[in-house]
Amino acid sequence: MKLINNLLIQIIPFFPKSFIKLFASPYIAGITDDEMLSTVENLNTKGYDVTIDILGEHIKTEKEATEITERYANLYDEISSRSLQGNLSIKLTHIGQDLGYDIVKKNLIILTEKAKKHYNFLRLDMENSPYTSETIVLYKEALKIYPNVGIVLQAYMHRSMDDLNALANKNFNCRICKGIYIESEDIAYSDYKKIRENYIKLVQIGLQKGSYIGIAGHDEYLINHLYQWIQDNNISKTQYEFQVLYGVPMEKTLQKLIQEDNKVRVYVPYGDNWYDYSVRRLKENPKMVGYIFKNIFKNIFG
Ligand SMILES: Cc1cc2nc3c(=O)[nH]c(=O)nc-3n(C[C@H](O)[C@H](O)[C@H](O)COP(=O)(O)OP(=O)(O)OC[C@H]3O[C@@H](n4cnc5c(N)ncnc54)[C@H](O)[C@@H]3O)c2cc1C
To answer: Best label site of 22, 41, 76, 121, fewest CB within 10 Å?
Structure first.
């Protein structure tokens, strides 16, 4: 399978855009605001909360950074005026992190103040390792303005346990995920079992310290294991939520969690940057190619 995935990744750039769209479309909640908002309304009706992400990262000019910040700020207005159950997830490189600390900080503060105005929440996604430390510094800056800001820790990073221990307290809101970027073995686990073990420890320690944990991912072993642990340890339902990416087919598991009064949040990416995002994600995580083919065959052959 690894060989097939790697081969597919080599040939992806030669495929027509329409062909890539076939793979990407189940994972993208539309191109326009209206398409995304109707997807969100639909998800809310089914009992899901959402977190909305405008696709894109590593923007190159301050003008673009300002425009994206405005678009995000307007989304808080839309969420409020339509009474949606949702918040925003942003990538700091999408609002100017590559252009300098002052630019990204200014834009982050604008969004934090907008979240505060609407009593909403802002999540800072975690990008690859060169950005980790600065993301934590910026997260602390945002916290000075408004407590409803959260961050992400990646279970494959060796440093995440130290970061958790330094940050976790009763007001800490953290998404734990495995980590999507390719990282060096010097700083990150590559072994599937080790990543799972670290993921479990991070979630458990975070919860034991009284933090709010977003248990993000689609690994049913981890979801079941942690849900059992949560029940065995009488962890309050107000202290955690499950989070999944839009389009990953696991409706049965998620609906069961919702029926048992757990919060399930769907990460909803949208926008016209779908092509670069999809191709980059496919390259970053060859396993995605396998999942996508598996789903297409499942849809065709039942
Ligand atoms: C809500 C959310 C937010 C995230 N935020 C970040 C972030 O800020 N930074 C970061 O580095 N990473 C982030 N990630 C990505 C995360 O780190 C993992 O790379 C991603 O979740 C894949 O790991 P997994 O948990 O699905 O486990 P895996 O072991 O990769 O997959 C478990 C099973 O899930 C199924 N599956 C997984 N993905 C798909 C798919 N796309 N289509 C179909 N089936 C699939 C497969 O059947 C697979 O066997 C986020 C993930 C989620 C769900």
So the answer is: 22
The enclosing H or E element of 17 equals helix 17-24
Residue 58 zone, left/alpha/beta (φ > 0; ψ -120 to 50; rest) = left
pLDDT single digits (tens) 63-74 = 999 999 999 999
Average pLDDT, the chain: 91
Compute the distance between CA of residue 34 and CA of residue 77 in angstroms, rounded to an integer.
Answer: 14
* 226 Cβ closer than 6 Å to some ligand 1 atom: no
- Residue-wise pLDDT for 275-301, tens only, equals 766 776 666 555 666 666 666 565 555
Ligand 1 neighbour 78 (Cβ under 6 A): no
Residue nearest to atom 25 of ligand 1 (CA): 217
Kindly report the CATH number that applies to the domain delimited by 29-270: 3.20.20.220
Q: CA–CA distance from 41 to each of 44, 246, 253, 267 (Å)?
A: 5, 13, 21, 14
For the stretch 148-160, pLDDT in tens is 999 999 999 999 9
